[in-house]
Amino acid sequence: MSIFVLCPADAVTGGPELLHQLVDLLRSRGRDAKIVYYPFGTDHRTPAAYAQYDLAIGTIDEVTPRSIFVVPEIYAWLLRKLPKSRIFFWWLSVDNFLASATANRLRHFIPKRLLWHLGIVRVRRFAAAHLYQSEYARLFLARHRLSPSYPLSDYLSPQIVEAATKRVTGEREDLVVYNPLKGAAQTTRIADCLATQASLRMVPIRGMTRQEVVDTLSKASLYIDFGHHPGKDRLPREAAALGCCVLTNRQGSAANDVDVPIPLGYKIDDTKPGFAPLAAEKIVEICVNFDRHAPDFDAYRRTIAAEPGIFAEQAESLITEMDAASS
Question: For strand 245-248 and strand 86-91, is the pairing parallel, antiparallel, or unpaired?
């Protein structure tokens, strides 16, 4: 049995890294697993950020009806064009699937909910099984009766894990770190409320190397994320693992206590009027009294530390399911 994992080429973000991690683990278990980069028909190189993983690059022409083809949710629109194989559809996010389902040339003429429904119908038709990375995705699959489904989560990169184990506790700087690609409007409103806090600096994770991200999070007091949380996001976990406190909204995966298991007091409902001053007040309180707030994230850090072992166990179960599918 050959296993192929579809992945966007030249992408260095959480989702693509997870696709590479799966190939690495499958190969460590003696499986013939390869990454297949999209777009097809072009020679692609593996990004240097994934050099630590054992990988092999395959082509779409190698996929046969006896192959297992792991396809992430962003390629739902591509399913009918893929060669016949046993497709394990991996829900790395829910929101990104919904966005790709509406990326249709008829989107200006067809209601969004109908496009979502058509996307789900397509997945139901072509996928032999579903994998879910988050509790948020599991709930979505259950709601739309997409089965069989199996958990396959993820874990932080070895560089982050190593840095977290070496993290030295101590005084933190008044740095508030955020991802400028997520929740920009909400973050701007919060920043406006913090304009009078001269000692507090807001730092975007933008144009940084992996090491620069590690260094920034290792000295920051707080990471905030008021985006849409399409899956079990990595940056909040990286921040917590490296010693930051975390403040989020209650959207997407942050709405449940499985994907983002932090105390409810650190999740602010940004759909309510006056959320920005409330968030700003909480940010100042955390930075001023960091040592008092930091222990509130110890349980979250223990959950994050256990993820590599959980991923390995889930992958072992998945291999069993793949063997059964190919027999």
Answer: unpaired
